Amino acid sequence: LAYCRHLSTVRTHLSALVNHSIVPPDRPCEASGGLSKEVWSKYQKDCKNYKELELLRLVYYGGVQHEIRKEVWPFLLGHYKFAMSKKDMSQIDAKINERYQQVMREWKACEVIVKQREKEMQSAIFAKLSSGSSIDSHVLRLAHRDSTLSNEVKRLSAI
Hints:
Layout: H1 2-15, H2 37-45, H3 52-62, H4 69-76, H5 86-131, H6 136-147, H7 149-158
Helix pairs in contact: 5-6, 5-7
């Protein structure tokens, strides 16, 4: 019974996702077959004869053929715009790749700082334990110093 109630709830929520502004599946042609490899290759050869709404309608009602999903999804997700040239697509890819590399450099710099501080804290605790003295004040100083990490991260990301 709980399963049936759950399905009813899911069905209700999914019905709210239906986009009623898209043309019905049988106009101007039947769309239950989805976006096929043939239609996609025709679109790529002559972008001007196909409208974005028609391609989206085919995808909406019938999905995307498995062989072309890798090519189509960047358009569906808005990474590329329909009717973009190969040159424009490669420029977008280069910009995204450069941004990704920049973010990775920033995170790796932060990771080095964090690992170094962890090593220092561990070695300080070990040294204090070995000497038999109280570690409370020293650990508190190291913990306070670690709270300044966010300032260093901001400084590094500005570089």
